[in-house]
Design a protein that fits this description.
- With 950 residues, the protein is an alpha/beta fold.
- It has 14 helices and 48 strands.
Length: 950
């Protein structure tokens, strides 16, 4: 279909889709902000010292829905501050220095539903909320607001929740005038202001359901002029400025909850006829007249509240007798008597008149003794709170009348031992909290009567040992918390019977090892926390009894923070954990992982090995460690002092989406490090030491241009070399586009070639110049300065050092000492004059010898001095027209080996040469031929002297 055939509406739709697609491929790295690793539409810019809002969020994608700018230094919100972020639904600006919000600052945020401006410097609220037509929650707490313009909230037609707590508001009328334009307002929070009186001008807030005036300075509670027909919750607690005597709640017909805690109010002023729908009331810390609580007044009120279900009556100096008095006044479902310090003993049917009570709070009293008579009539009680008292133990059958009890809270009592008979009768109990007591021992009888218990909290006690079958009667237990005890020993079958347990917390104990039956019976365990114990190994060798072998259902395992570190993880340590999805190994100061440990974890999706650095040592990871983790989605290797990555180490992580390497010492990231990470969406390198050089050219260009992977705070990555003042994204990689490899090759090739040529000239040409000079000199002397002289030697022997042994052991004895005639030979080491130039010695030796014996071998062919000696002898032969060279071959030498020595080859071709025979019987003939070649003439004895230069 051609573009001409499209209707205008279709063309516009295509253009819109194209724009949307383009917006989705914007740069994925920002300088001051980062996207949430699990949802790219959520952006965080927390604690980044942002002062200029426009610069900080200018490059944030248009599709962002949640933006958090908490704890920065923003002072002003200018007009159109968020013009490019029209998709925002949640904006958080708390903990800044905002004192001014210009008109139109939020104008383009028509989709925003939540705006947080808590903890700023705002003093007045003007017409700053234009455009927020869908805003539902506005938080302006912890500012310095004293005044709100009456039309400030007019644009907020859907606002439901408005918080103005902890400001400097004194005028309640001003607030009502501003909020009366909010047709949907349900919750108004004015906690901790300075409001003294209520408004006496007739006003109506039809939609309001919750109103908090807690912590003000109210001197009256007269709502007669304010119509709140749907208000259900009113909090006027902590108004202690003066005794409130003027109370009128007639205009609050639907009031369900009333909080008068800590407020000095005369209860006589509370007319019950206006509170006929009241269900919850808090009258904590009432005004005590003469030091005695007037319960008659309280009872008078309570008796006339027929729908009251829950009463909070804390800090009223109640004793056991007062409880009986109070119980006769009302039929409650929930009663909170916490923090009544006069409650010491309960043993006399104090609650006999409250058979319908379902929840009872007696926390932070001074109770040290209770009897089963205390609640003999509380058959319907489901939750009992006795925390933070002074119980050391409980008598037999202490709770037996509580047949319907489901939750029992006994934490923070000085209990040292558990009396199992105290729990007799609690057949329906599901939750028992014994945290922060002084319990030192538990055994199989401790919970024998709690057969339906599902949650047991024993954290922060002094338990040292778990004995065999301690929990055998807790067949339905699902959650067991034993963290922060002193556990060192867990005996075999300690967890026997816990077939339904799915959560076990053993963190912060002193466990150091495992045995075969440690976790026996925990077939359905899904979460195991062993962090901050003393588990450690010294070798990777295979364990005889892998500790987790039987935990077939385990999904999460925490081994963080072992004392002195795990050190070495045995090869089969994780054997059996085929269902494990999350593994935490971080915060271990020493941990060594070889290549097989993770192989059984085929279903692992989250792995954290962060915070393992100890001093300057970095985390060691074997190259093939992660190859079997095909389903891993999140990998954290943060704060490990890692300086480099091995190429291909992560290539098997095809499902990896979140990869964090922040706060290491990495200098270079290249393509081989991220090879085959097809699903990667989030790659965090913040806090490393990346270098701005060509080694990082690929990463710089990839990170800027990728449309899939987000790199948090990319725009703020500094260069750690060579220019520490610049940023990685500003690095000019133009120079890297040259093929530096070719430049380096040709440069090095030229250098090597020059060096070789120079060396060749030095070794060959220069020596050849000297060699030519010597030859010329010999030729000149032979041709023009020939003189008749007596020969001193019969023959000069030319040989290499390799053949020296043959010359001295065979040649010399045979010619100088053996047979007649005897010949005089000239030998290098014996007859050359010390201190004279070697060329002069060779020239004089040849000139004063009748013949030249050349002892030829393979080594001889490679000797430059031997070559010179042959040349000089050949010149003498040429100009004297005499056969003066005798060739002796010590071994067979092929003709092709003589091709590089053309003069010697010519001599071989033209003259007869003598070969040293291997057969001993042929050697007399050899010596005879030599003697024959040397001739009969011998040297005169008088001329037997050292060769001297002319």
């Amino acid at each position: 279909m051609s573009s001409e055939s499209l209707l205008p509406s279709q063309q516009l739709r295509l253009i819109f889709i194209g724009v949307c697609l383009l917006s989705l491929v914007e740069s994925y790295g920002f300088r001051k902000c980062t996207q949430y690793e699990l949802n790219i539409r959520h952006v965080f810019c927390i604690r980044k010292e942002i002062t200029n809002l426009t610069d900080a969020i200018g490059d944030i994608p248009r599709y962002t829905t949640h933006l958090n700018l908490t704890q920065n230094q923003i002072q002003v919100l200018p007009p159109h501050s968020f013009a490019n972020l029209s998709a925002l639904v949640d904006l958080r600006l708390e903990w800044n220095l905002i004192w001014k919000i210009d008109k139109g600052a939020f104008k383009e945020l028509g989709n925003l539903t939540f705006l947080n401006l808590v903890e700023n410097k705002i003093e007045s609220v003007n017409n700053s909320f234009e455009g927020l037509s869908n805003l539902e929650t506005l938080l302006l707490s912890h500012n310095f607001i004293t005044y709100i313009h009456k039309t400030a909230f007019v644009p907020l037609v859907k606002l439901k929740h408005l918080s103005l707590s902890r400001n400097h508001i004194t005028n309640f009328s001003n607030i009502l005038e501003a909020v009366q334009h909010l047709p949907c307002l349900e919750y108004l929070d004015l906690t901790n202001n300075n409001i003294i009186s209520l408004d006496h001008n007739p006003r109506s807030l039809v939609s309001l359901t919750h109103l908090s005036l807690q912590g003000n300075k109210l001197k009256e509670l007269n709502f007669s002029a304010l119509s709140l027909p749907n208000l259900t919750t009113l909090d006027v607690s902590q108004n202690r400025h003066q005794v409130i005597q003027n109370v009128d709640l007639e205009t609050l017909p639907q009031l369900r909850s009333l909080n008068l805690s800590g407020t000095l109010v005369k209860l006589e002023m509370l007319l019950a006829k206006y509170l006929q729908n009241l269900r919850e009331m808090d009258i904590t810390k009432l005004d005590l007249r003469g030091g005695h609580l007037n319960l008659n007044t309280v009872c008078c009120l309570l008796k006339n509240l027929p729908t009251l279900e829950a009463l909070v009556f804390q800090k009223n100096a109640m004793d056991a007798g007062d409880i009986k008095h109070l119980a006769n006044c009302t039929r409650l479902l929930s009663l909170d008597l916490s923090q009544n310090s006069d409650l010491v003993h309960l043993n006399d049917n104090e609650f006999v008149a409250m058979p319908s009570l379902q929840s009872l709070h007696l926390n932070k009293c001074q109770l040290s003794f209770i009897s089963n008579k205390t609640w003999s009539s509380l058959q319907n009680l489901t939750a009992l709170h006795l925390s933070h008292n002074k119980f050391k133990s409980f008598p037999d059958f202490a709770f037996s009348p509580l047949k319907g009890l489901q939750s029992l809270f006994l934490s923070k009592n000085p209990i040292t031992e558990l009396n199992h008979m105290a729990f007799h009768g609690l057949d329906l109990l599901k939750e028992l909290n014994l945290a922060e007591c002084w319990i030192v021992m538990i055994d199989s009888s401790s919970f024998v009567h709690l057969t339906n218990l599902e949650s047991l909290d024993l954290r922060l006690n002094n338990i040292h040992t778990l004995k065999q079958r301690t929990f055998q009667f807790l067949k339905k237990l699902k959650v067991l918390i034993l963290s922060r005890n002193r556990l060192e020993v867990i005996e075999e079958n300690a967890f026997f019977g816990l077939t339904h347990l799915y959560y076990l917390d053993l963190a912060y104990n002193s466990l150091s090892g495992f045995h075969l039956k440690l976790f026996l019976g925990l077939e359905n365990l899904e979460v195991l926390n062993l962090s901050y114990n003393r588990i450690t190994y010294e070798t990777t060798r295979t364990l005889q009894f892998p500790p987790f072998k039987n935990l077939k259902s385990l999904k999460q395992l925490n081994l963080e923070g072992q004392n002195h570190g795990i050190q070495v993880v045995p090869t089969n340590f994780f054997q059996g954990l085929n269902c494990l999805q999350e593994l935490f190994l971080g915060k271990n100061s020493m941990i060594f992982l070889d290549h097989l440990q993770f192989d059984p974890l085929v279903n692992l999706t989250k792995l954290d090995i962060s915070g393992t650095k100890a001093g300057d040592r970095s985390l060691y990871l074997n190259t093939s460690l992660f190859q079997k983790l095909k389903r891993l989605k999140m990998l954290r290797l943060e704060n490990n002092n890692m300086e480099s990555l091995t190429p291909g180490m992560f290539s098997g992580l095809e499902s990896l989406q979140v990869f964090s390497l922040r706060f290491n010492n990495l200098k270079v990231i290249n393509q081989s490090h991220l090879e085959n990470l097809k699903s990667l969406m989030y790659f965090d390198l913040y806090g490393n030491k990346l270098q701005c050089n060509c080694d990082n050219m690929w990463f710089k260009n990839w990170s800027i241009n990728t449309a899939v992977v987000h790199i948090p705070y990319l725009g703020s990555y500094p260069c750690h070399q060579p220019d520490t003042q610049s940023l990685l994204i500003d690095f000019d990689d133009a120079m890297c586009n040259f093929d530096l490899g070719k430049i380096y090759f040709f440069s090095s090739f030229s250098l090597v070639l020059t060096t070789m040529v120079f060396s060749w000239f030095s070794a060959k040409i220069i020596s050849s110049l000297w060699y030519g000079l010597y030859i010329f000199r010999a030729w000149y002397l032979a041709k023009w300065h020939r003189t008749e002289k007596e020969f001193i030697y019969d023959a000069f022997v030319s040989f290499t050092a390799t053949d020296e042994q043959w010359v001295y052991e065979e040649l010399v004895p045979a010619l100088e000492d053996g047979g007649q005639p005897k010949f005089k030979l000239c030998l290098h080491h014996r007859d050359f004059e010390p201190g004279m130039d070697i060329f002069e010695n060779i020239q004089n030796a040849i000139d004063t010898s009748r013949k030249t014996l050349c002892v030829v071998s393979n080594h001889y062919l490679h000797s430059e001095w031997c070559r010179l000696e042959v040349q000089l002898a050949s010149i003498k032969m040429f100009y004297e027209h005499e056969d003066v060279i005798i060739l002796i071959f010590l071994e067979e030498i092929p003709n092709y080996k003589l091709s590089s020595y053309h003069r010697l080859r010519k001599l071989v071709n033209r003259q007869t040469f003598i070969t040293w025979p291997d057969n001993v019987h042929e050697r007399p003939l050899f010596w005879a031929r030599i003697r024959n070649a040397l001739g009969n003439r011998t040297v005169e004895k008088d001329n037997a002297q050292l060769i001297v230069a002319e």
